[in-house]
Amino acid sequence: MSVGGPIAGPMNKANPSDFAKDLPWFHPSRHQDRRGFLLARNRIITAIRGWFAARDFLEVDTPALQISPGNEAHLHGFETKLIHNDGSSSVRYLHTSPEFACKKLLAAGETRIFNLGHVFRNRERTPTHAPEFTMLEWYRAAEPYNQIIEDTVAIVRLAAAEAKFNWKGIACDPLAKVEMLTVAEGFQKYAGVDLLSTLDGNRPDVKALAAQCPVAFQDDESWTDIFSRILVEKIEPHLGQGRITVFYEYPSCEAALARACAHDARVAERFELYAAGVELANGFGELTDAIEQRRRFEEEMDIKQRVYGERYPIDEELLRALTMMPEASGVALGLDRLIMLATGATRIDQVQW
User: Could you report the per-residue pLDDT of 68-116, keeping only the tens digit for each?
Assistant: First the structure.
């Protein structure tokens, strides 16, 4: 599936511990250790753009400066100040995703769009996280959630070419048959938790989940806190082993921007894709009910206020756009992480120019 030969290609797989810590990233010797990864990055991006062009997608370039950086409780934006001509000022944020702007373009009448650009998330720095990173996000209007899942698998395989992924000793063959695993199945299989029994309608019952919880937690933790702890400690280490895992049908309370599944309102059209234990993508059948979206945003911001002592404004233009937006499906993919796996890099900054 490569374009003009293997996309990743040969490179110097230097151990990050070999980098001279006192040298800046632009020192020639340090850059040389990274250059092979960076050239592979360019080849992968060229191939991805070609893939979208062949399917009549339009590349869009959305603004990074927004009224709201996003309204998910545990995402943290960078705040700045917009100074107007009269000297007055307004708070603005760097976006955590191009999602809000893309949905406005869907409302405007675009039907197949993708955005390849930088996004910004505060409080994030690990070998697989950076405060500024590249996100690939795309949408299909009037096309089903399952099609977006197929797209995402295809993009991962395109980047991989013939390479197999290996991250911290976990191997994954991207070309092998994909594992389709619901969140409820994963919790039952790996944690012994009957997740759906802890949802009253689509509302979470913290006592019911706590009664089954196989990991330690504090008495004052919420259903979401406990859900996340079980997911990280018991479920995620098993995902993407040997082959790609599509982990889908998240509880509706864990899918603030996704529509509920027609067959069971307790779960939503949300999926995440894992390879070699690494989460690469997060996709939805998009929620277009503006009233319900406002309720969910306010609920998320209430959680943020309780946990972090702050909240972000709601983008009223987005809610207006949702009343005009057709049914659609979309996904966000962490491009740097995918390139890491495709090239054998061991830290996200090795694949960032």
Answer: 999 999 999 999 999 999 999 999 999 999 999 999 999 999 999 999 9
Provide the domain count of the chain. Answer: 1
Amino acid sitting at position 196: L
What does the H/E/C string look like for 21-49?
Answer: CCCCCCCHHHHHHHHHHHHHHHHHHHHHH
Q: What is the CATH number of the domain that holds 63?
A: 3.30.930.10
pTM of the full structure:
0.92
The torsion angles phi and psi of 22, rounded to 5 degrees, stand at -90, 0
Count of CA atoms in the C-beta half-sphere (13 A) of 311: 12
The number of residues making up the chain comes to 353
User: Per the domain annotation, does 184 fall within a domain?
Assistant: yes
Residue 90's contacts (CB-CB under 8 Å, 6 or more residues apart) are 81, 82, 84
One DSSP character per residue, 106-160 reads HHHT--EEEEEEEEE-TT--BTTB-SEEEEEEEEEET--HHHHHHHHHHHHHHHH
